[in-house]
Amino acid sequence: MDAGSIPNPAGDTFQRSRKSDELPGLYVHIPFCLSKCVYCDFYSSTDLTLIPDFLAALRREMSLNKDFKRAFDTVYIGGGTPSVLTPADLERLIGDILTAFTIAPDAEITVEANPGDMTARRLAALRRAGVNRLNIGCQSFDDDALAFLGRRHHARQAVETIRMTRDSGFNNLGIDLIYGLPGPPGGAFAIWLATLRTALSFHPEHLSCYQLTVETNTPLADICRKSDIALPDRDIQARYFSRTAEILEEAGYLHYEVSNFALGNRFRSRHNSKYWNHTPYLGLGPAAHSFDGRQRRWNHRSVATYLKDLATGKPPVADSELLSDEQMRLEALFLGLRTRRGIHLGDFKRRYGQDLLAEKGDILRKLMEDALVEVRNGFLMPTRAGMAVADSLALI
Ligand code: SF4
Q1: Do 102 and 299 contact (CB within 8 A), yes or no?
Q2: What is the per-residue pLDDT across 110-119, written as a single tens digit (0 to 9) for each?
Q3: HSE, side-chain direction, 13 A CA sphere, residue 370
Q4: 36 lines ligand 1 (CB under 6 A)
Q5: Over the stretch 268-297, which tens digit does the pLDDT of each residue have?
Q6: Is 38 exposed, middle or buried (0-12, 13-18, 19+ CB in 10 A)?
Q7: What are the φ and ψ backbone dihedral angles of 121, each rounded to 5 degrees?
Q8: Ligand 1 close to Cβ of residue 137 (< 6 A)
Q9: How close is the Cα of 44 to the center of ligand 1, in Å?
Q10: 10 Å Cβ neighbour count for 59?
Q11: Which atom of ligand 1 lies closest to the CA of 114?
């Protein structure tokens, strides 16, 4: 173990950024869903008749970016619901990406899928095209919970999709789950624990466990406003968080980010880690964001505007912002303290010009006394209790 690495509960080590970690990532947003889930504020349209025009426009956007000089070592096709595309469209899309850009030979290539849409033919097409990681939005293995969330699928379909995925040869599988649904405290918690047990029975290489939040302008916000339905209070949410982390760590998972768990370092989401490390990424498709290490820009959310811009050869960019030194520093603090690896103090000083131990010594000592952070081998790391309140840690 070198001075830039620290052991973690899964028996691996966290490393300081290596050069290979710094290759950019490519994100492609497929902005279509068969229907909208009540809690979701991601951009997507349910007008599937626009898919052929969208795919043609996406090819145009790729060619506008074909001078992107660097190789990508991650590709993430998300949405929306990429699994609404036909097997032929999925295969062609990935082929177009591999032709338009330089993709590193060992790249992580992920596609998001919804249970219910995924068929053996789609899975075979993804395998043929070179996809090596599948992330399935199961959200729950309880039919009542799925109905409350407005999901189209049933628990049985989620189980079948996972089995099909394994049968198709995918050995890097992620499952997304949501906890903290309304309900009698004991009952909802027991349902969550059963969902977690079912997920573990498939030995997924990656698990994302998100706390249900009410985003403004979603149907869920309306439901909560018009009824007496309320999400669990802060103490109950904290219990969900810590019990989930305990169970998954006991099962051998590395709790490497507030909501993310991997069966060891090699199954971390390499792509999402770029967002937390300030590594550049290129985003294609409506609402996709790009970051070049200093400037962030984002595409129009509307499919119609996206199509209109690309029809005239114009980049479909809605706006951009150049991050100031102070914004970069605050973001690095905020994002770094959401990861178990935390912040490498020496790298932080070099990159953002702040010696955290010298300038924030008093507050850090207090956080250490409260067992919310620790300093080990040059890293400032949140503890499990610290990760539960990660957003407030960044206010130091
Ligand atoms: S949660 Fe996923 S499937 Fe549901 S509306 Fe949002 S993007 Fe679509």
Answers
A1: no
A2: 999 999 889 9
A3: 13
A4: yes
A5: 999 999 999 899 999 999 999 999 999 999
A6: middle
A7: -70, -40
A8: yes
A9: 8
A10: 17
A11: 3
Task: For residue 139, give the ligand 1 atom closest to its CA.
Answer: 1
Distances (CA, A) of 276 to 171, 281, 334: 25, 11, 9
Residue 321 φ then ψ, to 5°: -140, 140
Q: Are 115 and 86 in contact, with CB atoms under 8 Å apart?
A: no
Ligand 1 pocket check: which of 29, 30, 36, 47 to mutate, most ligand atoms within 8 Å of Cβ?
36
- pLDDT tens for each residue of 136-148: 999 999 999 999 9
Distance CA 128, CA 164 (A): 15
Q: Which of 59, 72, 61, 34 is nearest to 151 (CA)?
A: 34
Written as one string, the DSSP assignment of 283-331 is EESTT-EEE-SSEEEEE-S-HHHHHHHHHTT---EEEEEEPPHHHHHHH
Query: What pLDDT does 336 receive?
Result: 95
Both tokens of residue 297?
Answer: 């820009």
